[in-house]
Design brief:
46% helix; 11 helices; Lyase 2-enoyl-coa Hydratase, Chain  A, domain 2; alpha/beta
Length: 284
């Protein structure tokens, strides 16, 4: 394992094969500023390439999970050109939005499951973020809000694309059109969050227990589950079954199953090898 990078927007630690990414700007309500959007994909890549983590937990600090997008991202002249030819301005803005989308998609693209532990407000861009996680958990005081509508714009970084696949579309449309808050109990009833905890301490304890269960399983089996579930979400059943068969033909090996059976026979916890680190073509 290599030393993890340090980030301005969050702290990162790895223990017992669980990576914990914790937003660390409570004084600014953990708004998603330019550094955040640049750092998150690097953080995901860093965890995947340089640690033995098998699961990622994302949580936050302060009163709210995150108040969402820092509007300074769009007023930064280095990010978006707001002067000159309209066509060129539009092309510039499109590229910025695509980069923001890719930032959150990095949570889907890594092999590791990403669990989000949400307390307080999860607003605007923060809702985009948690929609890109594998599973969501929250406190009783948590609420979710598609804030962009109230601000006079259309949410553009993933909520409108992912949320209808996570809960009934009619409710998503209502939330998008009205901008009302979605409370914790309603979010659980609709299947958006897996569980609701009384407070932030209980939330983090509970999510870490779930992460530990995931980390104890074969990482090859778990990454196969994530790959298949993501593919199946976006493709037909027939195509997904064919992809499953191809994946199994190439990736399935009996070694981990044998370790499982032997460990159960000996009443011990199985010990699985980590996946090979993700490296670039020319990385050493």
């Amino acid at each position: 394992m290599s030393a993890l990078s340090t980030y301005e927007s969050f702290s990162v630690s790895v223990e017992n094969k669980i990576a914990h990414v914790q937003f660390s700007r409570p004084e600014a309500l953990n708004t998603m500023n330019k550094n955040f959007w640049l750092e998150l994909p690097k953080c995901m890549e860093d965890i995947e390439a340089n640690t033995d983590a098998r699961v990622v937990v994302v949580s936050s600090t302060g009163k709210h999970f995150s108040a969402g997008m820092d509007l300074g991202v769009f007023t930064d002249s280095n990010s978006v050109s707001m002067k000159g030819d309209p066509g060129r301005m539009a092309e510039s803005l499109r590229r910025v939005v695509l980069q923001l989308q890719d930032t959150l998609t990095s949570m889907e693209n890594i092999r590791l499951p990403v669990l989000t532990a949400i307390h307080g407000g999860c607003i605007g861009g923060a809702l985009d973020l948690v929609c890109a996680s594998d599973s969501r958990y929250c406190t009783e005081d948590a609420y979710f809000n598609i804030k962009e509508t109230e601000l006079g714009m259309t949410a553009d970084v993933g909520t409108l694309q992912r949320l209808p696949k996570l809960m009934p579309e009619g409710v998503v449309r209502e939330l998008a059109y009205t901008g009302r808050n979605l409370g914790a109990q309603e979010a659980q009833r609709l299947g958006f969050v897996n569980a609701v905890y009384p407070d932030q301490e209980a939330l983090l304890t509970g999510v870490m227990e779930i992460a530990a269960q995931i980390a104890a399983h074969s990482p090859l089996a778990v990454t196969g589950c994530k790959e298949m579930l993501n593919y199946s979400r976006d493709h037909s059943v027939a195509d997904s079954l064919k992809y499953m068969a191809t994946w199994q033909a190439g990736m399935f090996r009996p070694a981990d199953m044998m370790k499982t059976f032997q460990a159960k026979a000996q009443q011990q916890a199985p010990q699985y090898e980590d996946l090979f680190p993700v490296k670039g073509l020319f990385d050493k």
